[in-house]
Amino acid sequence: MVEEIMEATNQVAAVSPASPQETEGSNNNITRIHPTLYFAALKGNFQELIQVQNLETLVTPNKNTILHIHLTSTTTQKTGIRSSASFLLQTIQGKRPDLTVKVGVSEEFVGQILEKCRGLVLLPNAKGETPLHIAAKNGHSGVAKLLVEHVKAFPPDIEHGVGAEQKFMRATNNEKDTALHEAVRYNHIQVVKILLEMDPHYSYHANKADETPLYLASKGRYQKVACEILSNIKSPAYEGPNNQTALHAAVINQDIEMARELLKNEYVKLAVKHADKEGRNPLHYAVKKGNKVLTELLLEQNTSIAYMQDKNGMTALHIAAAYGSWQIVETIIKRYPDCSEIVDNKGQNFIHYAVNKGRLFIVIRIKRNLSMDHLFNEKDVYGNTPLHPQSGFLIFFPIISALRRRAIVLKLAYASREDLNALLTTQDPIEQLKLGEEKQNEQFDKKPKNELEKSVGRFFTKEAKETHLLVATLIATVSFAAGITLPGGTIQDGEHKSTPIMRDKASFIVFTVSNTLAMLLATAAAHIHLFTPLITKANWKVHFLCELALRFTLRALLAMIVAFAVATYAVLESSLLGIALVTLVSLYFFMVPCLKASMARI
Fold it and tell me: Which residue intervals are annotated with compositional bias (Polar residues) in the record (predicted)?
C-alpha cells in the first residue's frame, strides 16, 4: 500500500510545472494529494507520512501543504473507550453513548513534520498564507509559538537587518495581512500575546483594506487585544479605511473604555486631530452620536479640535445643533465660546443649522442662556439670517410634513419685523410659542376671503369635512367587519379550533396587516374630525388637522383596497389570479395618481 502511495506521489511531483507559463490553460498540471495522505494530514497521523520523501511536494490545488491542511482541521474519531465515566452516565440515563471525540490540532504532529521537512514552514498557499497565518486565524497559540521557534534556527535577513523569525512573523499574504492581523481579526488574545512578545518593536502597517491591527481591535470592540498592542508597541499604526483611525472606530462604536485606552498612548493620542475623507475628526462623530462623555473626553485632549471643519465647513458645534444635542452645544460653547462664530461653506453659523433642522428648543435655550443675540442677525451667502432662511422674517409654528420625508417637525412662516422683535424679546419659551401662534393665526386670517376660499374651502368646508368623516367611518366599519369575518373562515373542531384556516399563507398575513392599517388610519381620521372643534378654534390649526385627517383617510382607502385584493387571491388562489392582478394594476394607475394629485393640492 505504501509503495502505491509513493508511486502516486512521485507521479504528482513529476507533473508539477516548473513555470507559470506551462500551467496556463492546462488541467493536467493541477497539483493534488493522494486521499490516504490527505486524511493522514487531516487527522495528524504521522505514521502514514513517515516514509514519504519530499513532503513539500504534497500540495492541494490551492497550494495548501500538509501543515495547512492539519491546522485547519477538526476531525471526529471513535474513542474506542467504553468504560469512561461519561459512557456509564449516558448508559444509566438511557441515552445513546457518544463514542466519538473531536480531535484538534496536534503540536506533536506539527513538530514531527517540521523535523522531517524544515522548509515546509515557509511555504505559502495560493492565498499567500503561511502556516503561521493559518495558526493565527484559528487561534492555535501553541502551534504559532512552535512555528516561530522553529524559524529562529534559519539564517537572518542581513539585507533588512532582522532575524529570520521577525521576517517570518511580518510576512504578508495576498491581502497584505500579517499573522497579527489574522489573530486580531478573530480575537485570539493568546496568539496576539505570543506574536507581540516575540516582535515588540515592529509597528504593523495597514493591509490592502487599509486596516491596521489596532484599528481591527478597536472596530471589533476587542479591548483586551487593543491593550496588548498598546502596551507592547510604543508607536503602533492606527490607520483604517476611508482615512479613519482606531479612535474614529471607538467613537463610532461609542466604546468609551476603548477610547480611553487609545488616548493613554501618546502616539495614538495624535489621532484626535486626524480627519477622515469627509474631513471629520473623532469629535465630529462623538457629537453626531450625542455622546456627551466622549465629547468631553476628546475636548480635554486638544483645544483646537472644536474649531476644525469638515469638507462642508461644519464644526462639531454645527453638527450638535443640527442633531438637537443641547447639552453638547452648551458644553462646547462654554469651553470655547468664540467657535460659535465659525460659519460653514455657505456662510451659515450653528443657529442656522438649529433652525433649518427644526430644533426650536435649542434656539430658545441659546436665546435665554447663552446671550448670542448677534448671531441671530448674521447672514449666510444667500443673505439669510438664522430666522430668515427664505425671505422676509419668520416665526415658528408646528406643522408635520411626513409625506415629503422631511425630518423637520418645526417650520417657519412669514411675520413682520415688529412681530419678530416681539417674539425674540419675550424671555419665556412658553410665551414665545403663544406669541408665535397668535401671529401665525393673524397671518392666516389676513388672507383675502376669496383666496382663502379657493385654497381651503374646496377641501375643508363644513360639508367637505362631514363627507370626510363619513368616508373614514365607512372604511373603519368595513375594515372592522373584514377583520371579524376572516377570509376562508375558521377551523371548526380539533386542536386548532376557532383559528383561521389560512393563517399560514403569506397572502393572509398581508391581508391582516393591510386591513389593520386601514382600520387604524380610518379611526384616527374620524377622531380628528370629531375632536378638532373641541381642541382649537385657530384657523391654521383647524386647517392643519383637516389636512392630517384627509391624508389618513386616503391611506386607509388605499390599504382597504390592498386588503380586498389580497383576500380575493387568498380565497380563490390561481383560479382568479387575474382578478387580483387587475385590481392591483387598476389601483396603481388610478388610485396612486389620485393620491398624488390630492397631496399636491393640500
Answer: 8-27
